[in-house]
Amino acid sequence: MKKENSFRKLTKIVRSKPAKALFFIFFLWVLYRQLDAHGDWAEMMAEFKDHLGESPVWLFLLALMLTWVNYHAETLKWMVLTRPFQKISFKTAIMAVYAGISLGMVSPARIGEYGGRMLGLTPANRAKSVWALSFGAFLQKVVIFWLGVGVLVTPGFGGELLRQSENPYLDSEYFLPILIFVGVLLLVALVFYDPIIRHILRKQSWLGKKIYQGYFKYEWRDTWPALGLTAMRYLVYSVQLYLLNRFFGLPDDASLQFSIIFVTYWVQSFFPMPAALGLLIKSEIALFLWSAYGVNEISVLSGTFFLWIINGVLPSLIGLLFLDKILDNKTKGDV
Fold it and tell me: What would the DSSP string read from start to end of 139-199?
């Protein structure tokens, strides 16, 4: 009870007008710094204006509208992941998801995303949300890895891409078998993650044992829906990038586009980074993969940049409103 009263006092302080104004200024400053880190963003804005008069606008508008589908799928996934320990409404889940996007934007390694998700849960279940979000991230790794490997083992594009890389390690006869072996290990980890996690944490120090207290096992009836929603969201995300690439004038070849998109995400998955650095890495990977096809570099960069805008920046601004609403509810004593 004392902890809960302290939390309510803290939320009252956070919700004061000076505190909200300071956070909003800090939020805008971080966004500006992230834009500034992407030094050629002014060129991409100019590219966007040029294509408004040249490309079908519906491509951009459809990519923008799919953001709604993207985060609704993430909301349903969050409801599935929290179902074993707390049933939450769709309204509570979507507010927590968007609040997490906002806090993740202005925190190192997107740690704030965990904080945003916790706000939608009771105090007793907040530690479990860390496991829920971590398990969801692991499912995403499985989906991204296998779709990327699927492209690389496909006759035609996959082999051509490896040869064009001019890297003796990638073009080695052992490269794909090693990838498949790693993918199988991921699937084994998915099937046997429960005994693996329990064994690791029990061997750890006091901190590991404390973390273990919040651990729980996911049954397959929850894992399958979460995995399906993860795949759905990833495909929606990929379609968004495909539409933006089309809008910015990249080749109208769906198989080529999605192959490069899947491999781009696959390579990026090996570099867990904050959103802004992740954007830079994704852009460099996309440039490398598209370089053999003689496309405009600014067009490639514009696709990944505006995907970050519509899937990151815009939802984070909406998340500020939800974050204020959540804190307001908790100040009044609502959960």
Answer: HHHHHHHHHHHHHHTSTTHHHHHHHHTT-TTTTSTTHHHHHHHHHHHHHHHHHSHHHHHHH
The pLDDT value recorded for residue 195 is 65
Angle between helices 126-152 and 157-164 (to 10 degrees): 90
* Side chain identity, residue 81: L
Structure tokens at 202: 């029990």
Decide if 125 is inside a domain: yes
Q: Tell me, yes or no, whether 80 lies in a domain.
A: yes
Six token digits for residue 54: 């040249």
**CA separation, residue 306 to residues 164, 224, 242 (Å):** 27, 32, 12
How many other C-beta atoms are found inside a 10 Å radius of the C-beta of residue 122?
12
Contacts of 282 by beta carbon, 8 Å cutoff, 6+ apart = 264, 265, 268, 304
Q: What is the pLDDT of residues 209-222, one digit of tens each?
A: 555 555 667 788 88
Domain extent, residue 118, equals 67-331
Q: How many domains does the chain have?
A: 1
Report DSSP letters for 130-153, one per residue. Answer: HHHHHHHHHHHHHHHHHHHHHHHT
- With 0-12 / 13-18 / 19 or more C-beta atoms within 10 angstroms meaning exposed / middle / buried, residue 240 is buried
Which helix (H) or strand (E) segment holds residue 9: the answer is: helix 2-14
Handedness of CA 151, 153, 158, 161 (dihedral sign): positive
pLDDT of 239 higher than 60: yes
Q: Is the whole-model pTM more than 0.85?
A: no
Cα distance between residue 175 and residue 177, in whole Å: 6
Question: Would you say residue 228 has pLDDT above 80?
Answer: yes
pLDDT confidence tier of residue 310, bands split at 50, 70 and 90: very high
Q: Which two tokens stand for residue 160?
A: 């051509």
Give the model confidence (pLDDT) of 6-38 as tens digits: 555 555 655 666 777 787 888 888 888 777 766
Flag whether 283 is in a domain: yes
Cα maximum dimension of the chain: 64
Structural domain contains residue 9: no
